[in-house]
Structures are given as C-alpha cells and as structure tokens.
Automatic annotation (TrEMBL):
S-adenosyl-L-methionine recorded as keyword: no
Species classification: Bacteria, Pseudomonadati, Bacteroidota, Sphingobacteriia, Sphingobacteriales
Protein name: Chromosome partitioning protein, ParB family
Keywords: Chromosome partition, DNA-binding
GO molecular function, one term: DNA binding
Length: 301
C-alpha cells in the first residue's frame, strides 16, 4: 500500500496545474513496488533524496537568512505550499519549481516533501520554472531579463507570446530585455540591488554607453533617486550629438571583449582604435573634470 498522501485540491487549482495522468500500480503488485503517483490535483509525499535540482532554474542566488527563516517556519508549521516535480523513473524526480522551498526543507531536516507530480518536456520545464519564480519568488531584474531572453531563444517565442505566458504586457517584456544591452558594470549593479529597475529604465533611454556609465557612477556615488536620474538624463540628452563619418571596420571578438572589460573597469565607454598592422590607441573619454580626476586616480596618476 502506498504511503503517499492524497490531499484533494479545488477544481480551479487542479485545472491550472493540469497534472499528468495517474501512474497506478497493478492490483497484485507487491508492497515493495514503486509508490504510485496520485491523480490530478493531488499532493504526493516524495523523498527529498530522490529529487534532483531543475537545470532550467532561472534563479542563481538565494538569500541565506530568508532560507533560514523559512526553514524555521517549516519546522514549526510544516511546508504549506508543495513543490512541483516531474517523474523520471520509479525512484527519481526532477524539480520543476520550488527550489527555495526544497532547500529550506532540507535545512529543516525533512526527508520527505509534499509535491505535485507532472510530466513535462524541457521546454515546459523552462517555462514553468520561469513563471513560478517570477510570480512567487521575485527574481532580480537581471534574472528576469535573462530568463525572458532564454525563453525567446530556446522556446521560439515572440515577445507577445512571452508576455501572455508570464502575464506581462509587451512593453514590460521589452524593458526587461533592453537591460541586456546595458554595459556589464550597470547590469552587475542591477543584479546586486545597487540600482533599481526605475534607475535602469532611465539609463535605457540614453543611447550612448559612455553617458550611461557616467550617470551610473553618479547614482552609486551620490545615491541619486530615480527622479534625479531622470532629470540628469534630460540634461545630458540636450547636448548635441556629433555624427561620425565613415564607420570603422568591425573589431575581432577578443578586442571587443577587451574594450568591454576596460569600459566596466573605468565606468566609461573606452574605445580601442586598431590599424591594419595591429597598431592603435586606447581612448578613455571623460564627461567632467571630476570624472577625469576619478579616471586618473584609477590609473595611479
């Protein structure tokens, strides 16, 4: 007889989950046979040791203090919200969503965990992991942007289709995707919570990466509010833009990487100019005397 629990859920939740069909054992099966997976909408008790982590998990960082607090809550109250897994074989499951709950349950010393069991291919797993995290776990903006990009590329979705999947309008999806075009130093600040999505939206409207990095440096240094950044952006965008003549030949990947790394280091758009014989120069532009002083200080001038 299976030791797995059957906790019936409401019709609405069952329909939303669209769980897989039951895998029922033969009536004459031995007691040692693999535990059954209960019917649609039910909750199964799965051994934690039999669950492997979802390789499509978009979240890359977990707050240890929050995990500890959730673990303490699980010790007292149990795990209220089940995780979701897919069954690989008789004694093996793969996590679809709920890695934070799984980690906290391990910390709490649980050996079994309540779970919805589904069948899903890799595309479905990626979509479900992303949607579950965005709606319930509050990914940082860069994790959301990277997850959106991955769904577009790996699941062949258009932005409108992606918006439908995650209940976001197209403009919201576009704003997240545009974060991936910001310089690496700014992306890191968004990821680490040093600047907000509001700051990022203001920076996105600036086309020149050198100006983006200049504003970004002042946000960090002076603790500028989103409103102040928007004002600074409007002032900078008033300056006339010089149009260059003939465009240079595209650089190699290795030189582009060096250019990007230098830009991140100096928080300004560094330009490499390389001639046909390999000779060239490095340009480090500055936007004020203070900015020049900052760069010279970094160069130990």
């Amino acid at each position: 007889m299976s030791n797995e629990k059957r906790n019936a859920l409401g019709k609405g939740l069952s329909a939303l989950l669209n769980d897989s069909a039951s895998v029922m054992p033969d009536k004459n099966s031995a007691v040692s046979a693999p535990a059954e997976v209960n019917s649609m909408g039910s909750v199964n008790e799965i051994k934690i040791a039999e669950i492997e982590v979802n390789p499509f998990q978009p979240r890359t960082e977990f707050d240890q203090q929050a995990l500890s607090e959730l673990s303490d809550s699980i010790k007292l109250q149990g795990l209220i919200q089940p995780i979701t897994v897919r069954r690989i074989n008789a004694h093996s499951y793969q996590l679809i969503s709920g890695e934070r709950r799984l980690r906290a349950s391990k910390l709490a010393g649980l050996t079994q965990i309540p779970a919805y069991v589904r069948t899903a291919n890799d595309q479905q797993m990626l979509e479900m992991a992303l949607i579950e995290n965005i709606q319930r776990e509050n990914l940082n903006a860069m994790e959301v942007a990277l997850s959106f990009q991955r769904m577009i590329e790996e699941c062949s979705l258009k932005q409108e289709e992606l918006g439908d999947r995650v209940s976001k309008n197209r403009s919201t999806v576009t704003n997240y995707l545009r974060l991936l075009k910001l310089p690496p130093a700014i992306q890191a600040s968004i990821r680490d919570g040093q600047i907000s999505m509001g700051h990022a939206r203001a920076l996105i409207s600036v086309e020149d990466p050198a100006k983006q990095l200049f504003i970004h440096q002042h946000i960090i240094k002076d603790g500028l509010s989103v409103r102040k950044v928007e004002e600074l952006v409007r002032e900078i965008q008033k300056a006339p833009v010089k149009k260059e003549g003939k465009q240079p030949e595209p650089m190699s990947y290795s030189l582009q990487k060096i250019e990007d790394d230098l830009a991140s280091k100096f928080s300004t758009r560094v330009k490499l100019k390389v001639g046909s014989q390999g000779k060239g120069m490095i340009e480090i532009p500055f936007l004020s005397e203070d900015d020049l002083g900052r760069i010279l200080e970094m160069l130990d001038w």
